[in-house]
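for the writeup, i need someone to sanity check this before i put it in the appendix. the sequnce is what the collaborator sent (i think, or maybe the updated version? ugh). structure was predicted straight from it, no edits. if anything looks off just tell me and ill rerun, i have time this weekend
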Amino acid sequence: MGMNFSTKLTKLTLVFARLLKTGTGYFLAN
């Protein structure tokens, strides 16, 4: 369970970081 949770947490972090990066780029472009 611990390993599965860690993997999910890592994926969520990567997705969140990507969204944050995209959002920042979008705001800077406008």
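The mean pLDDT is 89. The helical segments are 2-29.
thx in advance!!
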